């Protein structure tokens, strides 16, 4: 299978400006056949602009887009053969569900019998069997979005672009729809590029996520890679809370940095690009921190990271602790199944972690 290595979509050095606003600034990444990639970034980072260039609604100022190794530059939008789903389902309200789904086939002059068969397949795929004759205007938000997905898939595109497709739905429905999107994508083996500003959504659906900010790619990788090994401080904090303790690197052995924290404790962290003798931050996610109270904390000795509990709040699936470590605020998330006595505000606790779960990063990051 010589084609296996060929990307389905290849973006190279894409730039686009709206007047003086540089929306995209040299964006490059690939999507493999059958891959689900999310484009994750804050509002205004250039996500929709990227999709508009791929779909052909805008022309890039510089850079190239290749679809199955063919440059897309001269192909008009309606010939690109790419499925599209937007935040608003944009169904034609006077048409039935079946007629909305059949629309792309009608535009391609597919015959009636073939159209009907394809619509039936799509209704099954998005769990709307029995809805064919329903008026589109009578659908709930989630149903309308499933119809929009069916319409985007009915002509068997090799690539589907989704721009905040679940943004208008409430949280529970959004989580259900995330699973459905992923299941449909796996079943069809279609490539998807899904735009979202919601990191939890990106992690839930992606094979890989591309994190962008100000029109530039910050990092691309699997959810685990990006979460555990963020390329920089922007990526680290965009993906979730990340504690940072200032210190100085005393030594580096293999890939472990020994860091003297401002409070005096000597701690270990994975070396993420620091220099011996240099100032650094020890970065660590809240769920990777262990807290000890009472005698256990006292037993830790001089190298304990002492912390004072400021507040603790019950969050259902976890307990959230806010601590003060030598003047720095640190957040800890503890599973509620492990009760711990002594979690009262003002209590002195000790923090611990496994070296591989903390990152020693240079100050500038
Ligand atoms: P996102 O989808 O990530 O929120 P966009 O791609 O929509 O971001 O926008 C990127 C930047 O380009 C923003 O600064 C936005 O204000 C600007 N922009 C987008 N569309 C237009 C437009 N039609 N005219 C002028 N500026 C625009
Ligand atoms: Mg947008």
Structure description:
- Strand 16 and strand 17 (318-325) form a beta hairpin.
- The longest helix has 18 residues, at 171-188.
- The chain is α+β, with helices and mostly antiparallel strands and 365 residues long.
- 24% of the residues lie in helices and 36% in strands.
- It folds into 2 domains: 9-238, Rossmann fold; 243-362, Beta Barrel (OB fold (Dihydrolipoamide Acetyltransferase, E2P)), CATH 2.40.50.
- Adenosine-5'-diphosphate is lined by residues 18, 21, 23, 41, 43-49.
Q: What is the topological layout?
A:
Layout: E1 9-18, E2 21-31, E3 36-40, H1 47-55, E4 62-67, E5 70-71, E6 82-85, H2 97-107, H3 112-125, H4 141-153, E7 159-163, H5 171-188, E8 191-196, H6 199-205, E9 208-213, E10 216-221, H7 223-228, H8 233-238, E11 243-253, E12 256-261, E13 266-271, E14 279-284, E15 290-293, H9 294-298, E16 305-314, E17 318-325, E18 328-335, E19 348-352, E20 358-362
Parallel strand pairs: 3-8, 3-9, 6-7, 7-8, 13-20
Antiparallel strand pairs: 1-2, 1-4, 4-5, 9-10, 11-12, 11-14, 12-13, 14-20, 15-19, 16-17, 16-19, 17-18
Helix pairs in contact: 2-3, 2-4, 3-4
Residues 18, 21, 23, 41, 43-49 line the site of adenosine-5'-diphosphate.
CATH-level-4 superfamily name of the largest domain = P-loop containing nucleotide triphosphate hydrolases
Structural class: alpha+beta
CATH architecture heading of the largest domain: 3-Layer(aba) Sandwich
Order of helices and strands: EEEHEEEHHHEHEHEEHHEEEEEHEEEEE
Number of strands: 20
**CATH overall fold name of the largest domain:** Rossmann fold
Q: Structurally, how many domains make up the residues? A: 2
Radius of gyration: 25 Å
Largest β-sheet summary: 6 strands, mixed
């Amino acid at each position: 299978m010589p084609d296996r290595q060929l990307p389905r979509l290849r973006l190279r050095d894409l730039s686009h400006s709206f007047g003086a606003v540089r929306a995209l600034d040299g964006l490059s990444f690939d999507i493999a056949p059958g891959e689900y990639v999310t484009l994750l970034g804050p509002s205004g980072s250039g996500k929709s602009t990227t999709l508009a260039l791929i779909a052909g609604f805008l022309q890039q100022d510089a850079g190239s887009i290749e679809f199955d190794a063919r440059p897309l530059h001269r192909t008009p939008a309606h010939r690109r053969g790419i499925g599209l789903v937007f935040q608003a389902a944009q169904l034609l309200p006077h048409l039935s569900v079946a007629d909305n789904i059949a629309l792309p086939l009608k535009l391609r002059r597919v015959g009636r019998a073939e159209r009907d068969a394809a619509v039936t397949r799509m209704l099954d795929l998005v769990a709307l069997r029995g809805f064919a004759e329903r008026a589109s205007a009578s659908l709930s938000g989630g149903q309308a979005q499933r119809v929009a997905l069916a319409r985007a898939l009915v002509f068997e595109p090799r690539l589907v672009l989704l721009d905040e497709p679940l943004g208008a739905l409430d949280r529970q429905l959004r989580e259900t729809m995330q699973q459905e999107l992923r299941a449909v994508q796996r079943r069809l083996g279609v490539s998807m590029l899904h735009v979202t500003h919601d990191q939890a959504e990106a992690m839930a659906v992606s094979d890989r996520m591309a994190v962008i900010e100000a029109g530039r790619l910050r990092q691309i990788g699997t959810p685990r890679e990006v979460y555990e090994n963020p390329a920089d401080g922007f990526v680290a904090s965009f993906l979730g809370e990340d504690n940072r303790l200032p210190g100085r690197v005393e030594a580096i052995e293999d890939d472990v940095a020994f860091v003297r924290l401002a409070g005096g404790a000597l701690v270990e962290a994975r070396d993420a690009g620091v220099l011996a003798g240099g100032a650094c931050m020890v970065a660590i996610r809240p769920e990777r921190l262990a807290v000890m109270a009472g005698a256990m904390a006292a037993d830790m000795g001089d190298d304990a990271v002492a912390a004072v509990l400021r507040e603790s709040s019950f969050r259902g699936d976890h307990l959230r602790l806010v601590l003060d470590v030598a003047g720095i605020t640190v957040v800890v998330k503890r599973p509620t199944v492990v009760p711990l006595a002594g979690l009262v505000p003002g209590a002195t606790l000790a923090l611990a972690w496994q070296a591989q779960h903390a990152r020693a990063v240079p100050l500038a990051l």
